[in-house]
Specification:
The complex is a heterodimer of chains A (891) and B (145). Chain A is built from 35 helices and four strands. Chain A has a two-stranded antiparallel ribbon with strand order 1-2. In chain A, strands 3-4 form a two-stranded antiparallel sheet. With 891 residues, chain A is mostly helical. Chain A has helices spanning 3-20, 29-68, 101-125, 132-155, 159-177, 184-214, 226-231, 233-241, 247-263, 272-275, 281-289, 293-307, 312-333, 338-361, 377-401, 417-431, 437-455, 460-485, 519-533, 535-542, 565-571, 574-592, 607-626, 631-652, 655-658, 663-666, 672-687, 694-714, 718-741, 756-775, 790-799, 829-837, 839-859, 879-882, 884-890, and strands spanning 85-88, 93-95, 801-803, 809-811. Among the domains of chain A are: 1-83 and 95-156; 843-862 and 874-891, no CATH class. The relative contact order of chain A is 0.06. Chain B is an all-alpha fold. Chain B has two domains: 1-48 and 98-145, Helix Hairpins (Orthogonal Bundle); 50-97, no CATH class. In chain B, 64% of the residues lie in helices and 0% in strands. The model of chain B has no long low-confidence stretch (mean pLDDT 81). The chains are: A mainly alpha (891), B mainly alpha (145). At the A-B interface, helix 24, helix 27, helix 28, helix 29 and helix 30 of A face helix 1, helix 2, helix 4 and helix 5 of B.
Chain lengths: 891, 145
């Protein structure tokens, strides 16, 4: 099978099978679970097959190179992209997948953990609970969509396709976080997560667009595929090193980092992640370990091989990452809700992962670069997933049976041995105790900081922050273990008042499926210890995904693996080991101590509500300030803008003044009848506001209209004059009728409004001036046909032309010319323009008139027709008011 | 003649703006009505003066009276945009006003009438619903709503 189809099946299997469960009967819980779990299972198997294919290709090359030159680095590249399935080729959005180590690792992680989560959901929602059937009915399609979105995001090769899946994760996580539709708080938290990650999605979108547009010089049409980006990494890195001459690339990175940072809950955008625990625990476990928040880490990892060359890369990422790491660790220690504790440790760990990429980007010149943290980014990410998912799984489980508040759980181990045992094993991973892969990962990270700090001493700050974070993590582990085991030093009810019970009154079940509430956690956490103790096995599995971080040899096989525990103890160098030991001891002491036992609030929880309040209330205030609802204010805004704009034009353009003294202005007295008519028009217009009597006003209005008709006649426009005459008469009649329906003016209605006069005069002057300026423009009465006004052409082609015997064009009155030259076929040019050249415009005009007529018709009260019975409608108005015309006439 | 038209535009615009700034919607409606006149006249000015220029008159007279041209005292008007056989030359606009602004205005007249009728109906309905057509009262209603 072609690999693109294999990946397609892998990506779309979860959502397809999730939707398929909708057809199953509601009560068929076992069947539903089986069908739904098949989704991530198929994805996992398919991706394994793809991986084996890629691995074979890589391994063959490696063996070949070994045979020829034992230690030669292979420079030949392996094509890691699949074929392309056309989707929207014209928009350069197609289905193609980049099956490199990072993408495949994430794909396998998502689908693998997904299997566990899907099974856990069955245990979590239970069978006996009354709502479980409905919950599972809704749950599997939604989480299937989420899984598909995540798989597509990490595997897509087209940048825009990645973005589409990225937004799909935002939408589906919104649905999952707001799972409890009747809990207003949960819905609010879902919106908070959606807006925050959606904002980041906008950033990513912008970054992708800017990147694509800025890289037109590298690839024709710009880079719209990740594989292209990696392929041209050398050219891109050259541009990035000289970023001042390519500022667009800088912006592309900053925007994409906003996307990655918000998704990965980097400080100060981390608030949505603890809020996201409003979701059912299966979702939290999935979201915190393998999906969603890891999307941001993945994005940075995807960009790393190229963008690491950007000086800003470490400068931006390390501070954010380190701050997030420290803040998450410190806040996590001072929480009581288990899910909140673990949520903040996730924030902390995400900061660490970001920081790791930032450190990797520092081009430090240490001679021995074998064990830099960045070379084992896959191990770091997998390590986190393998303890965080079990922690959440067991937290949800214990919440079902007892409580999620740690102060309530003293001695819980003796009641629920399996659940609490699994939780403690996972907590050992959190604390990075030797024997877990977490320990090696932390060692590598410390090693990376140490070497980076050798070159840039400022990074010692990061080292201190890491130590504090590690101490906090160990303390959390110690507190969880002592509390569950009921040992002295554990948390008790005395450590804080009991906030709202999370006890769900979960009925006990029996059978294998009932154990799914903790069993997936145990399976997942076992990888921690397998990796920690039998490290070569870990390297066999995960080594193939690790890629050298530098882009130059990105596609090469990597021979070294994560060091084993023994190796760390013997070779790695004493400082990281001592630091680890110090953290373990200090953390244990802190955990047993009395300090920091209270529950604190995260100040960042206020950020989103504050922004929301600002947008809604502040926006409302702005709206009421600008939208007064008073016509006068709107007019003053518009006219003020007009006057300012015109004043500015006059100020900067001296030619505006010349029109006042120009040729047209000088010809003012050339035609006396015209002047007379103009005077009448002006006089009648000015008289309108002079009187308070409305009928007199209308008379003046009509008189002004008739003067305009006369002006049309002077301007040799008989059609206009005729039309205006007709409409003027109708309008005046209309005005008279309507004014009878309206109340009379109050006395002195227009008095005391002296300020209106200067405004009106100014605006009138502006328009008169503008008219004069436009009309004074040289009309180009030349022989050059291109310089002729448009009316020239219209007049020429209005009827049709023919060439006479002398070769001069003549009006073709006999219509004898060939059809192509016939023109409109009418002698009245205005009519021909209306019905021929601008025929569609006239059609639109008729439509407008029709719409106006329909509007008038619908608003005016209708008379009842005889013989038709209307349903009686109660009206607020007296009968006279409903039929004013009639009442006026009869009274 | 263009100057006269420009003055007419200025005056009608000023009056219409004055009316629109008034307290009552009746005045506003009249202002809108007058505004359409002003705008139409403004477009009409784009077709240039209907009077022939000096050079155009010379050419015209020369064409009519043979070679010896003399200039008449009273200025000649251009012809309306209706074709006759004498326009069968390459320069129809030399002796004819520009037809394009007229065509645009014709459309504008019809549309402004439609808008006018709609506006007046709205006035009647507004008065019936709110018992007032004072701009300030209506703004108050809007604030309450």
């Amino acid at each position: 099978m072609n690999s693109v189809w294999m990946v397609m099946i892998a990506v779309f299997a979860p959502v397809t099978l999730g939707l398929a469960t909708l057809w199953l009967p509601r009560k068929a819980i076992e069947l539903r679970t089986a069908v739904a779990v098949a989704g991530p299972l198929i994805a996992f198997v398919m991706l394994l097959m793809v991986t084996s294919g890629v691995k074979t290709g890589l391994a063959t090359q490696h063996a070949y190179a070994d045979h020829e030159h034992a230690h030669q680095i292979i420079s030949e590249k392996v094509d890691l992209t699949t074929d392309t399935l056309d989707w929207m080729p014209s928009l350069n959005i197609n289905f193609a997948f980049l099956t490199d180590g990072l993408g495949l690792f994430f794909g396998l992680l998502v689908s693998g953990i997904g299997i566990g989560i899907f099974l856990y959901a069955r245990g979590y929602f239970g069978k006996a609970a009354p709502t479980s059937a409905d919950d599972l009915y809704r749950f599997y399609p939604t989480i299937g969509l989420f899984t598909t979105a995540m798989l597509g995001l990490v595997l897509a090769d087209y940048t825009i396709l990645t973005l589409l899946f990225w937004e799909m994760t935002s939408i589906s996580s919104f649905l999952l976080i707001g799972w409890d539709r009747y809990d207003k708080k949960a819905v609010k938290l879902a919106m908070q997560a959606f807006f925050t990650t959606g904002l980041g999605g906008m950033g990513l979108f912008g970054g992708i667009l800017v990147f694509g547009n800025a890289t037109g010089s590298v690839v024709e049409g710009g880079i719209w595929r990740w594989s292209q980006m990696l392929e041209h990494s050398e050219a891109l890195q050259a541009m990035l090193l000289n970023v001042t001459s390519h500022p667009q690339l800088l912006w592309a990175f900053v925007l994409m980092f906003i996307g990655a940072g918000t998704k990965s809950a980097q400080f100060p955008f981390h608030y949505w992640l603890p809020g996201a625990m409003a979701a059912p625990t299966p979702v939290s476990a999935f979201l915190h370990s393998a999906t969603m928040v890891k999307a941001g880490v993945f994005m940075v990892g995807r960009l790393f091989p190229v963008f690491a060359a950007l000086p800003l890369f470490p400068q931006l990422i390390i501070p954010f990452g380190a701050a997030t790491m420290l803040y998450g660790g410190v806040v996590a220690l001072q929480q009581h809700d288990l899910k909140r504790i673990f949520a903040f440790t996730t924030v902390s760990q995400l900061g660490l992962l970001m920081c790791m990429y930032g450190l990797g980007a520092i081009d430090f010149t240490y001679k021995d670069h074998v064990f830099a943290a960045i070379d084992f980014d896959v191990t770091q990410i997998a390590n986190h997933a393998f303890y965080k998912a079990p922690l959440f799984i067991t937290a949800g489980a214990i919440g079902h049976f007892l409580s999620r508040d740690i102060t309530q759980l003293n001695g819980a181990f003796y009641k629920h041995k399996a659940i609490c045992g699994t939780m403690m094993l996972a907590a050992l991973g959190l604390a990075a105790v030797p024997g877990t892969i977490s320990f090696q990962a932390k060692e590598l990270f410390l090693y990376g900081i140490l070497h980076a700090a050798d070159v840039y001493p400022v990074l010692w700050v990061v080292m201190v922050m890491t130590i504090i974070t590690a101490v906090c993590n160990v303390a959390i582990c110690v507190r969880v273990c002592t509390t569950l085991l009921g040992l002295p030093g554990g948390m008790t009810e005395a450590d804080g008042e009991h906030h709202g019970d999370h006890h769900h009154d979960h009925p006990h079940e029996h059978g294998l499926l009932a154990h799914m509430i903790w069993l997936p956690g145990l399976v997942i956490v076992s990888f921690q210890f397998l990796g920690g103790i039998i490290t070569p096995l870990w390297n066999m599995v995960f080594g193939i995904f690790e890629q050298p971080a530098t882009a130059a040899n990105y596609f090469q096989y990597k021979a070294e693996g994560v060091p084993s525990l023994l190796y760390v103890a013997k070779h790695l160098g004493s400082i990281p080991l001592w630091i680890s030991m110090f953290c373990l001891v200090a953390g244990t002491m802190l955990g047993l101590s009395k300090f920091f036992r209270g529950s604190i609030k995260d100040f960042a929880d206020k950020i989103y509500p504050a922004m929301y309040w600002l947008a809604v209330t502040g926006g409302g205030k702005c709206f009421r300030l600008v939208q007064t609802g008073n016509l006068k204010h709107y007019l003053i805004f518009v006219l003020g803008a007009l006057l300012l704009g015109f004043g500015w034009t006059v100020a900067v353009d001296a030619e505006m003044w010349s029109t006042l003294t120009g040729d047209e202005a000088a010809r003012v007295f050339e035609y006396w009848p015209g002047i007379l008519i103009g005077l009448i028009a002006c006089l009648t217009a000015v008289l309108i506001p002079m009187t308070d009597i409305r009928i007199v006003r209308i008379v003046f209005l009509g008189a002004c209209g008739f003067a305009v008709v006369a002006l049309y006649l002077v301007y040799q426009a008989p059609d206009l004059a005729l039309t205006q005459l007709m409409f003027e008469i109708i309008s005046v009649i209309l005005f008279v009728i309507v004014l009878r329906l309206l109340p009379k003016e109050k006395k002195g209605a227009d008095a005391g409004k002296a300020w209106r006069i200067p405004v009106a005069v100014c605006v009138g002057l502006v328009f008169g001036w503008m008219t004069l300026t436009a009309a004074s423009h040289n009309r180009g009465e030349t022989t050059n046909p291109d310089a002729q006004p448009l009316g020239h052409t219209l007049a020429q082609h209005s009827y049709g032309l023919k060439t006479d015997d002398d070769g001069n064009p003549k009006l073709d009155t006999a219509m004898s010319g060939d059809v192509g030259k016939r023109g409109g076929g009418g002698t009245n040019v205005v009519n021909v323009i209306l019905v021929d050249f601008r025929g569609f415009d006239t059609l639109g005009e008729i439509a407008v008139l029709g719409l106006a007529a329909m509007g008038v018709w619908s608003m005016l009260p209708h008379r009842r027709r005889k013989g038709i019975k209307y349903r009686k409608v109660e009206s607020d108005y007296p009968k006279e008011a409903l039929d004013p015309l009639e009442s006026e006439v009869t009274t | 003649m263009t100057m006269v038209l420009a003055i007419c535009v200025a005056v009608t615009f000023a009056v219409s703006i004055y009316l629109m700034l008034g307290r009552e919607l009746k005045g506003v409606a009249m202002g809108v009505f007058l505004l359409s006149h002003a705008a139409n006249l403004s477009i009409l000015a784009m077709s240039g003066s209907p009077m022939m220029t000096h050079a155009q008159q010379e050419a015209e007279v020369a064409a009519e009276n043979g070679s010896h041209a003399h200039i008449v005292d009273s200025p000649l008007m251009k012809d309306p945009p209706i074709l006759a056989s004498q326009y069968a030359n390459e320069q129809p606009l030399a002796t004819m006003v520009d037809p394009l602004p007229q065509a645009l205005i014709l459309t504008a007249i019809v549309i402004s009438f439609g808008v006018m009728a709609f506006l007046l109906t709205l006035l009647v309905v507004t008065n019936r619903k709110t018992q007032t057509i004072e701009v300030a009262d209506l703004a108050e209603e809007a604030r309450k709503a």
